[in-house]
Amino acid sequence: MGLYKIAAILGYSVLFAAIIGLVRFKQTPKAYRPFFYLVWLGLVNHTASLVFVHYFHSNSINGNIFVLLESLLFLYLFKNWGLFKSKPITFFVLSVSLIVVWIVDNLILHSLLSANAGFRIINAFLLVFLAIEQMTHLITNARKKPLFDPVFIICTGILIYFSYKAFIEVFFLMETNASLSLITNIYAILVYINCFVNLLYAWAALWIPRKNQSLF
Amino acid sequence: MDTQEKSIFILVVIAASVLGIVLLYFIVTIIRQQRKSKQLHLDKMQAEIRTLERERKRFASDLHDDLGPLLSAIRFKINSIDPSSPEDEQLIADVSQHIDDSLTRIREIAFNLMPGTLLRKGLVATVEEIISKTENHFPFIIKFSANENQLVDQEKSVHLYRIILEILHNTIKHAHATELTLSVYINETTVRFQSQDNGVGFDPEVVKNNAHGLGLKNLQSRVEIMGGEICIESEPGKGVHCSFEIPL
Ligand SMILES: Nc1ncnc2c1ncn2[C@@H]1O[C@H](COP(=O)(O)OP(=O)(O)OP(=O)(O)O)[C@@H](O)[C@H]1O
Ligand SMILES: [Mg+2]
């Protein structure tokens, strides 16, 4: 089986989390809504990518739009988890800067039609830092066992996926004349990691508490 | 890929693996630290609660065993005075009534601080006593079912008693309920507890974010100290359900 087919199939691993989200959406606290939106958006984006690649041989347009929505939703999720509680302005500043960077990268410096690394790199680093921040908060505040704590699991997923993503994007920024087969081989690693992280998200979705339950 | 690109690819894979190992170590460290910090927190809570309960017990026994007999002696002496006029007789009767009231109050306060029955007759008897006292004052029915096949150690029974008391107080204070069901089952290995009222309930998300009360927090801490996990469920209009299980 070709790599493209494998990627197409493994990308759908997000389906598990999406379906669990569909079933549990109503029972779970509002704070977790951005997570479900993210999962569904991921599903839509993967499908869109397959369609765009089939017809236009490039998924850059939907990819570029997806990364912006994704980063804003993650930011909102962190806000709901209380990461910016002590300085609420941080959330606002970060969202606005992300949008500005995205506009500069995708509309002014480059075009929506090319896969633009600038925003992706900044976004990946930002999400990794925020995930680390959130995880260190958990050390002192969490009462649940980490492996069953949705916040911990989702942060683990973010950490794993986006640190590889940052690494790969930076690598291609340096290595500008890589051959197509090298690029594909390196992206293949990300495909497997993405699949693993999608399964982590499904696991997290299972453990999101019901909204009528409470821990103090 | 030519040979040069192959070696680049291998380098990338190695770098990725190194990154993976570092991440794994980071995650494991977080898990370990979280476990440690939770244990530390619980130990601290336990020490605090122990001190609190010890002080309560001391107050209760000081009141009940020292002040009580003293007042009784005073009453006895006053009653033995020979009144010389009807006014004096009335005065003595008044004073001895006051002393009686004080004695009753002291017994009540001592009981609230640390019920003697709890240490002598165990949890179920004490809760039954509390319930019979409460039922006269408040317009809701308490259905209490229990079996106590096994005596719980003193510290745990104090915890359990305080938990039940807090649930009772919350139901009185917030619930506007007409019925409260409590059940405690104690066997060789576990204590199983459940409570359900049919009152107004609350929205956990709202209460969690802006509650000033300590009741539910303490309740959770006490259960965690005993090695259990508490589940408090509520929705507006659906009452409050609380359950936990503790290993013995
Ligand atoms: N049985 C109940 N029915 C309805 N609401 C409840 C019930 N128990 C608790 N609550 C709600 O949960 C909140 C927190 O309860 P908690 O026991 O922690 O604090 P409190 O009772 O207000 O104060 P404290 O217990 O410290 O005296 C209450 O303010 C109340 O709104
Ligand atoms: Mg209370």
TrEMBL record, chain B:
It is an enzyme of class 2 (transferase). GO terms for cellular component: cytoplasm; plasma membrane. Residues 62-248 form the Histidine kinase domain. It is a multi-pass membrane protein. Its main location: membrane. It comes from the Bacteria. It catalyses: ATP + protein L-histidine = ADP + protein N-phospho-L-histidine. Residues 35-62 form a coiled coil. Its EC number is 2.7.13.3. The chain crosses the membrane at residues 6-28. Keywords: 4Fe-4S, Cell membrane, Coiled coil, Cytoplasm, Iron, Iron-sulfur, Kinase, Membrane, Metal-binding, Transferase, Transmembrane, Transmembrane helix, Two-component regulatory system. It is found in: Cell membrane; Cytoplasm. CDD domains: HATPase_UhpB-NarQ-NarX-like. Its cofactor is [4Fe-4S] cluster. PANTHER family: NITRATE/NITRITE SENSOR PROTEIN NARX-RELATED (PTHR24421), SENSOR HISTIDINE KINASE NARS (PTHR24421:SF37). Member of the two-component regulatory system NreB/NreC involved in the control of dissimilatory nitrate/nitrite reduction in response to oxygen. NreB functions as a direct oxygen sensor histidine kinase which is autophosphorylated, in the absence of oxygen, probably at the conserved histidine residue, and transfers its phosphate group probably to a conserved aspartate residue of NreC. NreB/NreC activates the expression of the nitrate (narGHJI) and nitrite (nir) reductase operons, as well as the putative nitrate transporter gene narT. This is Oxygen sensor histidine kinase NreB. It comes from Lacibacter luteus. The lineage of its organism: Bacteria, Pseudomonadati, Bacteroidota, Chitinophagia, Chitinophagales.
